[in-house]
């Protein structure tokens, strides 16, 4: 075989190798994108999300920054069932949320959800289990003062690049400070996400809460864009979004807010 033919063969083999590696990388990226849009995917993810809310309180002069540590850890129980544990630990800084309340900084109450998830069938995934609220708030204005529990449910359909679903729970208080109001809150988070090329994902959702004790809705509408990338060799998803409060109690936030987040992905 002549030198030119050997060179052409080497170039052809390199081209095939590069093409295979690139297509595999894109396939893996697409799979991770879809799993990130699924709240109960079998993927270990540690998101750190900071939310900014403004115009809080009767005078509309308060603000709040909440950084949520939100690890999601799956445990495969058998070939047909996975336990997905989702935890939200809020770190809150706020100012003037009530008249003459001043500033507070510390932990809020922790929410931990346990989803028993059967195998996905034709793109449809669901999970159900208990949710627990732990009274971990470090300041009276950062906690409900109550321990709570209730059911939680996720259901979603993934078709091509689209993910459409809902996450919901209801928390009742069962113990805590007798001088504080009881907790009876229904949380509803319908969501739709589109996984575009290049690792970009566009998401629209609401994270609405109905307080049955006060008889009040809190309805933030969130539009978010995220990008799947790497920091060194660590896969991460970077996200930013804007939030509009369509409904809120007088003591809650109003107008527009924002969020930024980074999610560390462990395969």
CATH architect. name? Beta Barrel
User: What name is given to the CATH topology?
Assistant: Porin
Number of separate domains: 1
Q: β content, as a range?
A: over 45%
- Main sheet record: 15 strands, antiparallel
Rounded to the nearest angstrom, the distance between the terminal CA atoms is: 45 Å
- Counting copies of identical and different chains, the oligomeric state is single chain
Assign an overall shape.
globular
Helix content: 10-25%
Classified by CATH, the class is Mainly Beta
Output the helix-strand order: HEEEEEEEEEEEEEEE
Number of helices: 1
Quickly give the structural class: mainly beta
Structure, described:
By secondary structure, the protein is mainly β. It has one domain: Beta Barrel (Porin). It has 1 helix and 15 strands, in the order αβββββββββββββββ. The protein has one helix at residues 3-36, and strands spanning 44-56, 62-69, 72-78, 81-95, 103-107, 110-118, 124-134, 146-159, 162-176, 184-195, 200-206, 208-211, 216-231, 234-247, 255-266. It has a 15-stranded antiparallel beta sheet that branches.
How do the helices and strands line up, and which of them pair or pack?
Elements: H1 3-36, E1 44-56, E2 62-69, E3 72-78, E4 81-95, E5 103-107, E6 110-118, E7 124-134, E8 146-159, E9 162-176, E10 184-195, E11 200-206, E12 208-211, E13 216-231, E14 234-247, E15 255-266
Antiparallel strand pairs: 1-2, 1-15, 2-4, 3-4, 4-5, 4-6, 6-7, 7-8, 8-9, 9-10, 10-11, 10-12, 11-13, 12-13, 13-14, 14-15
What brief labels describe this structure?
Porin, 267 residues, mainly beta, globular, 15 strands, 13% helix
